[in-house]
Design goal:
Elements (H helix, E strand, L loop, with lengths): L11 H21 L31 H11 L11
Length: 85
C-alpha cells in the first residue's frame, strides 16, 4: 500500500491533492492486480460516524490541540484541479 506522511503543518487543503494523486496510483495498481477476496472479520471491524458540519465548528470551550486540529481540518485553499481530467 502507499503511504503519505502528514506533517504537523499540513491542512486538509495541503494534504488532499497529495492523497488524490496517491489514490489514483493505488486505484490503477488495484485494477491491474489479481485480487483475492476474503470475508471481513466483523469482530475486528470499526465504524466511524459521518462528520457533520457541526463537527467542524470552533467552539468557545475548545482548547489547545483539539482547536488546532479542528482548524487544520477546515483550512482549505480555493478548489483546484489535480492533474488532467
Amino acid at each position: 500500500m502507499g503511504e503519505e506522511p502528514i506533517d504537523p503543518s499540513d491542512t486538509a487543503g495541503t494534504l488532499a491533492p497529495r492523497l488524490a494523486l496517491l489514490g489514483g496510483e493505488l486505484l490503477v495498481a488495484a485494477l491491474d492486480a489479481e485480487l483475492e477476496f476474503e470475508e471481513q472479520d466483523e469482530a475486528a471491524a470499526t465504524y466511524a460516524e459521518k462528520i457533520e458540519a457541526a463537527d467542524r465548528e470552533l467552539l468557545p470551550g475548545q482548547r489547545g490541540r483539539s482547536r488546532a486540529r479542528t482548524h487544520r481540518a477546515r483550512a482549505r485553499p480555493a478548489h483546484r484541479r489535480v492533474g488532467r481530467v
